[in-house]
Amino acid sequence: MEGFIPFSRPTIDEDEIAEVAQALRDGWVTEGPRVKRLEDQFREAVGARHAIATASGTAALHVALAAAGVGPGDEVITTPFTFVATVNAVRYVGATPVLADIDVHDYDLSPEAVERRLSPRTRAIIPVHMAGQPCRMDELLRLAAGQGAVVIEDAAHAAGASYRGRPIGSIAPMTAFSFYASKNMTTGEGGMLTLGDDGLAERARLLAHQGLTRDSWARYSRNGHWHYDVPELGFKCNLSDVAAAIGIHQLRKLPDFLAARQRVASLYDRALADLEEVELPRVRPEVRHAWHLYIVRLRTEMLTIGRDEFIALLGQRGIAASVHYIPVHHFSYYRRLLGDLSGELPNTERVAPCVVSLPIYPALRDEEALTVAEAVRGILRRHRR
Ligand SMILES: *Cc1c(COP(=O)(O)O)cnc(C)c1O
Q: Which of 47, 62, 143, 147 is deepest in the core (most CB within 10 A)?
């Protein structure tokens, strides 16, 4: 479509293509040396002790919960304002998700709301670094420690972000990243689990590889050995070398990708600053934001249109916007499981119908971002109350 601005578009160059071709020529199509390289380089980039490449971000969360021993009867506190994968992973291990409300401006898990949801059955807390802005980790870690619960960060949006000078991936005992197509770096499908504890890392690696005591790299390389044990039930969650070939180059470019995302965010900030009808994203002083998403909140009480019409009008102008997120407890599966929680999550209920995510990615050109900003201005001007 002429002049169409998609919501997201990955940046894949000749380096990624050549590396994938080389992986195919080498014959390492499943987990091999490129996975190891990606794990080592990622671990180093985020200052983690261990990194385990996984088939997806969801798989990284699943393995993290299983490695922590979270299971039936346990409660896991997380946010309703996330991609459903966060909460699905809790269900995969048979635990009960407990949804705590969000901050009304930053849209992330509120430590005060978490505190009200703590119980003797709380085994884990999963903060989601919404849009790429790290959560209030000091408070969340303190609450978890007081309850003997583990913190597992959902950092699907936050590769490259940092909190009080520490990179995301080096803070909580476990952090799950996603390399899905739209994320800050991609392997097509893929993810990474970083860990700080040796024992937990050993268990997580085993659980990500069917419970086998050695991964295929160790088994099939020259010094590998055919024998292995299966001490417990594991899952098939590993990444392939074909995918890792993409990731190695994406990781190298991550600082540039983040700078480009920051540039788009600054452009939107400037171009939309004077509009009373939208609330723009805020950045806390203690974080480095990774700008996976640029979320604006419409002050619909000042407008004659709602959020859905606003998105449709952007679409008519050739601009794809999106919504992050439909709250988890609105989905019929979770309504059946958890009952009607709308009365208990007032901030989420207030924010959810008004948020719009504008296109933000390294391949978005300045002229395109300005076109988006102009379209937003035009639509708001025309539909003022
Ligand atoms: C993308 C995403 C996931 C899941 O990642 P996949 O790699 O698609 O499995 C989990 N949580 C959040 C917040 C996400 O945005």
A: 62
Q: 353-363 pLDDT, tens per residue?
A: 999 999 999 99
Distance CA 348, CA 244 (A): 36
Report the 10 Å Cβ neighbour count for 202: 14
pLDDT above 90 coverage of the chain, percent? 94
Q: Is the CB of 144 under 6 A from ligand 1?
A: no
C-alpha to C-alpha distances, 328 to 15, 61, 97, 245, 337, nearest whole angstrom: 38, 16, 10, 34, 11
Q: Provide the 10 A C-beta neighbour count for residue 156.
A: 29
User: Can you tell me the distance from the alpha carbon of 202 to that of 259, in angstroms, rounded to the nearest whole number?
Assistant: 35
CA of 8 to the centre of ligand 1 (A): 15
Interior CA angle at 299 toward 298 and 303, to 5°? 95
Could you tell me how far CA 153 lies from the centroid of its own chain? 9
In this predicted model, what pLDDT tens digit does every residue of 152-194 receive, in sequence order?
999 999 999 999 999 999 999 999 999 999 999 999 999 999 9
Beta strands in 45-120 (DSSP E): 50-54, 75-78, 96-99
Residue indicated by tokens 């690696």: 205
Query: What tokens appear for 209 in the block?
Result: 């590889």
